[in-house]
Write a structure and sequence with these properties.
The protein is mainly α. It contains 18 helices and six strands. A hairpin with a 3-residue loop joins strand 4 and strand 5. The radius of gyration is 28 Å and the shape is globular. The two termini are about 50 Å apart.
Length: about 625
């Protein structure tokens, strides 16, 4: 399989004779299959494992809830670890397979422990005789926690690499493929939704009505088949090799900027350091090789935000004039801009945490609401309480094709944007709708509570929850896909796995923040209310004030939306100098599609004679003896 060879950010090799057979939707079909099959088990576990912990592993109520919350939060946090590994050491494809093996092993361990009673706590032992929140002890406890940790590592690793692997199949330098990239993320969410729908219906029903080990076994087989499909697609993937550590490059910029803190930033950004040639060897080889090495790394246009970081690109007098410059003494403009991009992303990440806190309520309190409502669908069929999240999944299954085939073409005609609307606009719509969803949830809770108090024998129908679930389903479609596409497109190609993992970091923090909010609200309201009872105190929904908690989140979400609007308008999208992004296998002398300007041709001729010249990427002017025409700065 051919891989992109090059620097930290490599261009696609889509122009060679095999280019038309690699990448595109043909390649992502294998990824869609993996996403659907893996999410069958993962989402089913998310919504039902709390009951497994409670009834099989004999945790108490708080212990089972906290164990599940910690598991989900850890899974999303470990996405960052996997993204770092795939960007730095392994390819995204190989990283996904490695973590896939770990996930399958973990699911097998969970299945075995659920099958054999000897590996479970004694069902006859009362909770009072147990220490802590569980009766698990010794080797059984070790097997339980090891399997959960491995499952979080494997599932998180897959989520930290697969979105970026699929995004790599579309060359952003090609206008047609750039349009397809936005569609890819929509279909990725649809695949997730399709698999999750089967999981929360079929697998959850099997687990709760047949046996837990059978449900886990189905999830294991589904994951195995999914990863086999991913491996079968290898001949069709465009695979980028990992580059320098993104963490190391960030640290270099910060360190060098601190060293140069007393220097003045040049008014002309073209005086900052930005070489094109990356090695002395490249300057002494053939002309075609030199040009290929010069154009292989994507250059990012300089921006005026965070000017203090530009000090890292000041070429000091004590720096070497050779093409290989110590990165701990001077950094390139592109490297500095990469750090600026990540810095600009931080407020966006922070602004999307609360929407995931709202999502956590739909997976906890809304499920408890549904459990106290009329669960019957017709005279005989009763919906399992753990299958209640199927409502937003069904809405998403319908809405995503409508969005892709109707809304996007319509919006594209108006905005001329390939995706119809920008990624940040899409996220903004999702944040606004999530606030509306929490307001509607409070209204529905008032109706449910009033009916339960008026006549407990005639609860309102479960489908009253469909209003809040439908609105939040639309919000999730806009927010999740918008964030994945935003982080993928804005990040340098060598950081895209790590960057797309920021979406899951937001989810992780949102889940943990939900627990903090619940405890904080209970503590605060128990002190100020006349009854000395918290809004969410106890297990009886009819005696607490869940509606007030929903409205509190709605108000907070509207304030967060206003905060997001400020940061979204402040954010500057990445602008790349992609005029040099061509296939490195093409002989630029024999290909009329690639012609050098006269000044760049002069630089090429000089480099062949062994002179250490650099092509100025920012302008097409004569070559200066210093790298990039940069001026030396006195200490």
């Amino acid at each position: 399989m051919e891989e992109n060879k090059g620097g930290f950010e490599a261009g696609y090799k889509s122009l060679n004779k095999m280019g038309d057979r690699k990448g595109g939707f043909r390649a992502t079909m294998f990824i869609y299959v993996l996403i659907a099959l893996e999410n069958m088990g993962f989402v089913a576990n998310m919504v039902s494992m709390v009951l497994y912990f409670l009834f099989v592993m004999h945790f108490d109520l708080a212990g089972s809830a906290n164990t599940l919350t910690n598991f989900i939060g850890s899974t999303y946090l470990l996405c960052l670890f996997a993204g770092f590994i795939s960007d730095t050491y392994l390819t995204r494809f190989n990283t996904c397979l490695v973590f896939g093996v770990i996930e399958i092993l973990a699911l097998a361990m969970v299945t075995i422990q659920a099958h054999y009673k000897e590996l479970q706590p004694d069902a006859m032992m009362p909770m009072q005789a147990c220490s802590g929140s569980t009766c698990l002890k010794g080797g059984n406890a070790a097997m339980f926690y090891v399997s959960l940790c491995l499952l979080a590592l494997g599932a998180g690793g897959m989520r930290g690499t697969v979105p970026a692997l699929g995004g790599d199949q579309f060359n952003q330098k090609d206008p047609n493929e750039r349009k397809s990239l936005a569609s890819y993320f929509n279909w990725l969410l649809l695949s997730t939704t399709f698999g999750a729908t089967i999981g929360v219906t079929v697998i959850v029903w099997v687990s709760m009505n047949k046996d837990w080990d059978l449900g886990f076994f189905i999830a294991t087989i589904a994951a195995i088949v999914g990863y086999v499909f991913l491996a079968l697609g290898k001949p069709y993937y465009r695979i980028q090799t990992p580059g320098d550590s993104p963490i190391l490059r960030i640290i270099q910029v910060i360190v060098v900027a601190f060293k140069n803190r007393k220097l003045e930033v040049p008014e002309n950004s073209e005086e900052l350091y930005e070489p094109v040639s990356t090695s002395t060897e490249a300057a002494t080889t053939t002309a075609s090789t030199t040009v290929a090495s010069c154009i292989d790394e994507e250059k990012i246009t300089h921006t005026d935000q965070f000017r203090f970081l530009d000090k890292a690109a000041i070429l000091r007098q004590d720096c070497s004039t050779s093409p290989t410059v110590d990165p701990w003494k001077v950094c390139t403009i592109t490297q500095v801009e990469q750090v600026k991009i990540l810095t600009r992303m931080l407020p966006i990440i922070a602004s999307t945490i609360l929407v995931n806190t709202c999502l956590a309520q739909l997976q906890t309190f809304s499920v408890q609401q549904g459990n106290s409502m009329n669960l019957h669908l017709g005279p005989s069929f009763k919906i399992p309480a753990a299958s209640i999240p199927v409502i937003p999944l069904l809405f998403l299954t319908i809405l995503i094709p409508i969005y892709e085939f109707l809304f996007v073409p319509f919006a594209r005609k108006i905005t001329k944007h390939p995706a119809g609307i920008t990624q940040l606009q899409r996220v903004g719509v999702g944040l606004f709708l999530s606030a509306i969803s929490m307001g509607v949830a409070g209204i529905v809770e008032v109706k449910r509570k009033n009916q339960a108090i008026k006549d407990p024998t005639k609860p309102i129908s479960l489908f009253w929850l469909s209003f809040q679930y439908a609105i939040f389903g639309i919000a999730d479609m806009f927010t999740l896909v918008g964030l994945l596409e935003f982080f993928y497109k804005e990040a340098p190609s060598g950081m895209r796995s790590l960057s797309t993992s920021f979406t899951y970091l937001s989810q992780s923090v949102g889940y943990f923040l939900s627990s903090v909010f619940v405890d904080l609200i209970n503590t605060t309201t128990s002190r100020v209310t006349k009854s000395k009872r918290g809004w969410l105190d106890g297990q009886d929904l009819n005696k607490n004030n869940l509606n007030l908690f929903y409205w509190f989140l709605a108000i907070l979400s509207f304030l967060n939306f206003a905060n997001y609007l400020f940061w979204a308008s402040w954010y500057k999208y990445k602008a790349s100098n992609d005029e040099h992004m061509v296939d490195s296998d093409i002989d630029v002398h024999d290909n009329p599609a690639f012609e050098l300007s006269s000044s760049k041709q002069k630089a090429l001729n000089r480099s062949n004679s062994g002179s250490p010249y650099f092509i100025n990427q920012q302008r097409d002017q004569d070559i200066s003896p210093q790298p990039n025409g940069a001026k030396y700065i006195e200490k």
